[in-house]
Design goal:
The structure holds three protein chains of three kinds. Chain A is 77% helix and 0% strand. Chain A starts with a helix and ends with a helix. By secondary structure, chain C is mainly alpha-helical. The chains are: A mainly alpha, B mainly alpha, C mainly alpha. Chains A and C meet through helix 1 of A and helix 27 of C.
Amino acid sequence: MHLAYPAVLSTLLFCTGLYGVLARRNAILVLMSVEVMLNAVNLNLVAFDVWLSKAAEETLHSGQALTLFTIAIAAAEIGIGLAIVLAVHRNRGTADIDKLRDTAEGHETDGPDSDARTAEQADRTGKAEATA
Amino acid sequence: MSPAAAAATAAHSMTTAAAESHGFLSPTGVEIAFLLVGLVTFGAALVTVTTKQLVHAALWLVVTLGGIAVEYLLLTAEFIAWVQVLIYVGSVVVLLLFGLMLTKAPIGRSPDADSGNRWAALAVAVAAAAALVWVVVDAFRATWIDLGGPAAGSTEATGASLFQNWVLPFEALSVLLLAALVGAIVLSRKAKTEKSSPPVNSRPATGSSPSVPDSRNHPVERNGSVKGTESAEQEGGR
Amino acid sequence: MTTTTLAVLVPLLPFLGAAAGLLLGRTAPGFVRPLAVLPTLAALVLAAVIAVRQGGDQAVDAATELTPTGSVPIELALHIDGFAALVAVLVGFVATCVQIYSTGYLRDDPRYPSYAALVALFTSAMLLVVYSGDLIVLLVGWEIMGICSYFLVGHYWETPEARAASIKAFLVTKLGDVPFLIGLFALATDAGSFRITTVLGAVTHGGLDHPTLIALLLLAGVAGKSAQFPLHTWLPDAMAGPTPVSALIHAATMVAAGVYFIARLLPVFEASQAAMIVLAVMAAVTMVGSGLAALAQDDIKRVLAYSTIGQLGYMTGALAVGDRGAAVFHLLSHGAFKALLFLAAGVIIHAAGTNSLAAMSRMRDLRARVPDAYWTMTVALLALAAIPPFSGFFSKESVLGAAEHVATGHTEHAPGVAGWTILVAGLLTALLTAAYAMRLWLLAFRGRGTEAPDHGRQPLTMTVVLWVLAVPSLALGGLAYRVLPDWFDGRDLAPTLTTSVLGTGVALVGGIVTYGAWRYTASVAAHSPIGAVAAHPEGDAARVEAEAIASHAPAYGDVASAPDPADPGRLLLGPLHRHAAGGFHLDAVYTALFVRPVQAGATLVRFLDREVVETYVRGAGALPRWLGIAVRRAQTGNLQTYVSALLAGTVVLAVAVVLVATGA
């Protein structure tokens, strides 16, 4: 099989994920896009491993091993990432990345507090509705 | 072009014989299948990053990841393909769906799914894609993979390699997973104690709205438990 | 000890006293009064010893060159002739009296230590001027006096009048000092030395190339220091300082320095006929103008200030007719009675609680409250009005006699025009002097109306000094006019019959006319009550005076005059009163001539700085600021934007690397 097919596919998937990371507003969608990018890399690793393991006499199957590691690390990353997103959502009442602008020029310092307060209130009303 | 050229020459010397027997415009059946599945995968990925419905994005992600698993199979990496299905399709997407639900993502079309950064992102992505495709095609246009013979990624071959050559990184990885487990719990617990301790303390005194801390704790606990099963699944799968 | 050593000690002792007083003023307040009085007293004793040793004989000259100073050598030189010896005694005497008086006058003043130290420094500087035989050393003392007068006139710096007066005194005297400095350099360049003896030697041999220029330049400095027309305007305003400082400035230091300087270098001025004419005209204008102005003043101290200007006019007049003996004689007697007048005025202001003659004229029995001041001031006013046999009579007659001598053409030193000018102006001034002395006395001590407030007896230090000063005011002239020629040039100082009769006659006429006018206006005074007194009459004299000065302008509308219809001066001067009260609008002229152009120039410079220079600065700053604003706008806080920029940069770099690597 032509090596260019998996290589180009992985490139296109990577750039698609890149677009998603840069353009998506919801943090969880950003995490999905990150998964797409990781999978593009995995595809690349597997394709090259297959090619090299057939071409070379001795092989360590390093591409496949690394793919497994990447999958494990990606799983850990998605867990931690979701925990962070949830924590942010609890504190700020939003998971929208472009609303988390604490580092912006001229950002007033008491912003997060008031945000947190409103978020808490919103949370409470939401919870109240849920329990009702 | 020097790194790509070097790789190309190296690859060329190794695959001269194969190159003779394959025409560029005469695709084999595997290549056609790879191309079709790749188009589906790419399309699904595009829909994933562009759809306005958040839950649909997760579902299209399933298609993308499944397509990649098929591509693994076509590349004779069967073990990786099953791990991909188990972990990504089976657990990561489920986790993401939980995340969507817990952050109260709207169901149905949400017009503000894309941020104002969209056009800049599109420009960067297209430019990156153009540059990468150009380089990759230029480097590997005369390289073929020999898919004949024993499968390169069978469970036997992968397992032998993993537990002979990669056993130490494998064990280190389990420590990393443990650290991630602990980290996720700590992140959740910290927020819980800070936020919910006053209501917990005041509960016997005031007796007001016991559901508030409970409902707040649930996502964290569920998240942790999902996390635990997921990493256990990973261990088992491996 | 040799006379030279003693002479060095005379200026040095007050200087050391001033330094010690400044150092110990805060830590050891108990030493301040002895440190103020004793060095000055010691300087007086030493100056007297030197005067006795010198005895009018050959001048004592001593010089040491500390370091080579280029083409014209500067030496630490002493030159003590009869003039120097006697003026030093006067300076020491008045300074001692002022220091003793100040211990009572500024009894409760928290700034007394620095005040006493500055007075001592002032005295030291004047003694340096008197004894110095080198023009640069003399200039040092001259400028130290300038800065001391600035600090002392501004002693009540809480009041705006004192602040304005101190700055005015400093600036106006400096206005004269700049030409003075240039004149000194020109003189030294022409004569080849700064030594006074060398300069005088060069003058007698006709060694000066530009005598008129040099004399006129020096005259500007003298006019500034000695308060001669047209640079006299600082002196009346300097009354915003404490009374002892006024006494010191007017009697012995500062204003005496200018006259003394001309007396020292008289041959330089005599070398130029034009300079002598200018000096004579200056003296005449000063005399008459100040006499008229003094008649219109309401502040008792401003009356005395204008009288000082007038008496200094007599001295410069004597110099203009080439008789420095008469000038220094008048300087000595004037120093005694003018110090007495000021110190007595200080006592009166303290007792009355006001410095306004209009207010005093409505107080009954003020003389009973201050008997010492009453009697001594009467003596001093008689001396001022040149009534025989008081000392002012003899010194003033010596001046008039010298003028007559010149006017009748008996000398080749000075032009006859100068003699006539001085003689006529001097007689006119004698009339005016008697008139304002009479007015001062009548208004201060013959007031009618409510009884004067009683604040108890004045401090002993203040009253004893008055009697000490009354002795020379009374007797100095009569005793000295026979002895002094031995100390001076040897010219006769005895009064001549013509001028004596004329001078005493016009003085009597002035006094009687004023008395008549007062009798006429005194009946009006009862109908127009006027006056304001200090808020804290029980405080020490300095505080009462400061409050009186500060309240004069708010109470009467002006620092100089009061709208008092019962003022005999108003009756005598008629329509001239308004102009005389304001010093003949010289301040307005200066405002138009100097202040406005300077302020306009400052406005122009400010405009250039703000609008032109600043534009370039702003332009240079605008570009970085705009860049900064642009960069700041990029800091949106949106992570995706940041990452987009980062990746775009990465792509560009990667493409660039690939292009470079392929050689494209």
